[in-house]
Specification:
The complex is a heterodimer.
Chain A (H helix, E strand, L loop, with lengths): L2 E12 L6 E12 L3 E5 L6 H8 L7 E6 L2 E5 L7 H8 E4 L11 H11 L4 H14 L15 H13 L5 E5 L7 H18 L2 E5 L11 E6 L2 E6 L8
Parallel strand pairs in A: 3-8, 3-9, 6-7, 7-8
Antiparallel strand pairs in A: 1-2, 1-4, 4-5, 9-10
Helix pairs in contact in A: 3-4, 3-5
Chain B lengths: L1 H33 L4 E5 L12 E2 L2 H6 L4 E16 L2 E10 L10 E4 L8 E5 L9 E4 L2 E9 L10 E5 H9 L3 H9 L13 E2 L1 E6 L5 H11 L2 E5 H12 L1 H31 L2 H9 L4 H30 L11 H27 L10
Parallel strand pairs in B: 4-9, 6-8
Antiparallel strand pairs in B: 1-11, 1-12, 2-10, 3-4, 3-11, 5-8, 6-9, 7-8
Helix pairs in contact in B: 1-6, 1-7, 1-9, 1-10, 6-7, 7-10, 9-10
Classes of the chains: A alpha/beta, B alpha+beta.
């Protein structure tokens, strides 16, 4: 399998001197194209810090990150424009959809492509294609605030896939959903991972969805352990 | 929309206040600016017919007519008085003018000008009079034969134009009770004859090619008169007569604009604070600070445009109920729009600063 992201010895220290906190103490992990893995751990274990390091939102203190075969961090960022890296190579999903309320759904999905400089019509075509894949094309011209929670989350998945990134970081994407809908989202992410060859890292506390992962990274005190997941199949 | 409506009412008040400020100035200048005079000759040490009582002999006109550089002269009476219409009384500024000369009513929008030698009047429409109305001034009945528009005194009293001789009698002629009273006090002089010789001001038109200031200076030297040129009269009215009222309106206008700015700033700031996560997400997916700034500005401008449209409609609806002239011209509307957009832009600064401080990391985690 082709690796989408490889991390070696990732450390993150907040603060200096006696008050310094080592949030990550040398994380090693690898995620492959087309797989969905779970990143689980208690509150304060370092999940969010790790996600922010992978997502090039904060600077790791040390370590090495390889994204899509390209080394992007080796004790320092090796790329000039971190914002461009985030925009083009990483998709994000959040606890809530956080769609832009005054834009239509198709505009919300097209936005990352427009920010990347794609022509408007091309971005709209791709956005409509993604909304069709996610079975929500009928709501394309609705404003974001006119959707239900599940529908809005699907639009946010489409937005995460917009620039066809090798990695999607999903921060507790099922938190606001009930058990049935949570499983539906995970099922959808599995399908999309295989369809688009995207590696999806799902941070979750959700006991309903944890058994569905084939691989799990459990984080505790800034260190991760790889565990074999149950890989339970999801009945739609 | 509710935000726009609240702002709209504030903008309506601002536009109206602008109009009142401008109206106060145009009202003050309406009679002098339409009189056709270059110089107002009045009693020494007085501020002239529109600002202070002035009394001089009407036959000085003849002497002034032959003065070098003078093309035309005309007597003018100007004073305020209550006039009766049925059971009502209305405060007006009576303007007495000589037929065919300077100071006569212009802007006649209904009826005609005065053609009879006595007891006809032309009133400004703000008096509430109609063509054909009978009014009573000092016991005599006058018929309203025409209506003017925007002919008012600096106090906002509508002008009532009558013939000079009628006005002289109203202002100077004593009634029987006064004559009787004077006689009892051994002041036996019958001053009724003097009424036809008095006037408040003499309007002077300067001949082409003559310097108005020089002619006015020469008139002052010639006799013990005051002679005001139009710029002097304008300055006198604006700086001495309506100065306090205009300043009061201007200060209130500034306060209103400041309150509007504070309210818009608060509205936009509250709206921005409610979207911090969305702003963080936008930053996370690669939106530039410029794009986010423009989005906040567009939101502020949108509120401004909605507020302005509502304000414009509301002000159009309520302006007619104001008793004084509200000068509601296109330039005031344009200026109000520019000010509204400027205030909205300024009010966005705090929100933009708050948005710039949002880190993309805020999108991830609780």
């Amino acid at each position: 399998m082709k690796s989408a992201i490889i991390m070696e010895g990732i450390k993150k220290r907040y603060g200096k001197g006696a008050t310094a906190v080592d949030a990550l103490q040398g994380v090693d992990m690898a995620v492959y194209s087309g797989e969905v893995i779970g990143l689980i751990g208690a509150s304060g274990s370092g999940k969010t810090t790790l996600l922010q390091c992978i997502g090039a939102i904060i600077d790791p203190t040390a370590g090495r990150i390889e994204l899509g075969g390209e080394v992007i961090f080796d004790n320092r960022w090796l790329i000039k424009d971190v914002r461009k890296l985030r925009r083009d190579k990483i998709g994000f999903m959040f606890q809530a959809p956080y769609l832009i309320p005054f834009l239509t759904n198709i505009e919300n999905v097209a936005l990352p492509m427009l920010l990347a400089g794609q022509p408007y019509e091309q971005a709209r075509l791709r956005a409509m294609e993604l909304l069709t894949t996610l079975d929500i094309a009928g709501k394309a011209e609705f404003k974001a605030y006119q959707l239900s929670g599940g529908q809005a989350q699907r639009v946010s998945i489409a937005r995460a896939l917009a620039n066809n990134p090798p990695v999607i970081l999903a921060d507790e994407p099922t938190a606001p959903l009930d058990g049935h809908r949570s499983l539906a989202v995970i099922s959808l992410l599995n399908e999309l991972a295989q369809q688009y060859g995207t590696a999806i890292i799902v941070v979750t506390h959700d006991e309903v969805v944890i058994p569905t992962f084939k691989r799990i990274y459990r984080i505790r005190d800034g260190l991760v352990n790889e565990e074999k997941g149950e890989g339970r199949s999801i009945c739609n | 929309m509710l935000t726009g409506m609240v702002l709209g009412l504030l903008i309506a008040a601002t536009i109206t206040m602008f109009g009142m400020y401008r109206g106060t100035i145009t009202d003050a200048l309406s009679l002098p600016s339409t009189s056709g005079a270059d110089i107002w000759v009045v009693q020494e040490n007085t501020l002239g017919p529109y600002a202070e009582a002035s009394s001089l002999y009407a036959d000085e006109c003849r002497g002034l007519a032959g003065f070098p550089g003078v093309a035309e002269v005309s007597n003018l009476i100007n004073f305020s008085r209550q006039v009766q219409r049925g059971d009502d009384d209305v405060r007006v500024t009576i303007v007495g003018y000589e037929d065919g000369k300077m100071g006569q009513p212009i802007n006649i929008i209904a009826g005609r000008t005065i053609i009879k030698s006595k007891y006809e009047a032309v009133a400004d429409i703000r008096s509430g009079f109609k063509v054909g109305d009978k009014i009573q001034i000092k016991g005599d009945d006058y018929t309203i034969v025409g209506l003017t528009e925007l002919m008012v005194s600096s106090a906002g009293d509508p002008a009532l134009f009558i013939r000079l001789k009628d006005a002289q009698e109203v202002q100077f002629k004593k009634d029987n009770t006064s004559i009787y009273s004077d006689r009892n006090r051994n002041n036996a002089t019958d001053n009724n004859e003097i009424s036809k010789y008095k006037t408040n001001a003499i309007l002077v038109k300067v001949a082409p090619g003559w310097d108005v200031n020089q002619v006015a200076a020469n008139i002052k030297q010639w006799k013990h008169f005051e002679a005001y040129t139009y710029p002097e009269m304008e300055n006198l009215l604006l700086s001495k007569i309506i100065d306090k009222a205009a300043k009061q309106l201007a200060i209130f206008l500034v306060i209103l604009q400041t309150v509007s700015a504070a309210i818009v700033a608060l509205l936009i700031y509250t709206m921005t604070m409610g979207k911090l996560k969305e702003i963080a997400v936008l930053k996370l997916i690669g939106a530039s600070n410029h794009l986010i700034t423009m989005m906040i500005l567009q939101e502020a401008w949108g509120i401004g445009v909605i507020g302005y449209m509502i304000g414009l409609v509301v002000s159009i609806l309520w302006v007619p109920i104001f008793p004084r002239h509200v000068a509601y011209s296109t330039d005031i509307r344009v200026l109000s729009f520019v000010l509204t957009m400027g205030i909205c832009s300024l009010a966005s600064i705090i929100s933009i600063r708050a948005a710039m401080k949002v880190e993309p990391a805020a999108a991830i985690g609780g």
